[in-house]
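F.,

This is the one I mentioned.
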């Protein structure tokens, strides 16, 4: 799954849940392994940090 699509799916899950969602729940819902999740999370976190530094 592409990072942009993954991000959109995670945001949709969090919005629809209306409550805090654990990483474990996200992984179960997305059928991802923890390793793959961490890889995507790290990329997403770096993008956020880069964007915040620009602003």
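My design for it:
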């Amino acid at each position: 799954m592409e990072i942009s699509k993954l991000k959109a799916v995670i945001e949709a899950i969090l919005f629809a849940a209306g409550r805090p969602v654990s990483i474990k729940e996200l992984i179960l819902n997305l059928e991802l392994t923890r390793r793959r999740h961490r890889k995507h999370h790290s990329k997403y976190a770096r993008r956020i940090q880069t964007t915040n530094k620009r602003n």
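The chain has a mean pLDDT of 79.

Talk soon.
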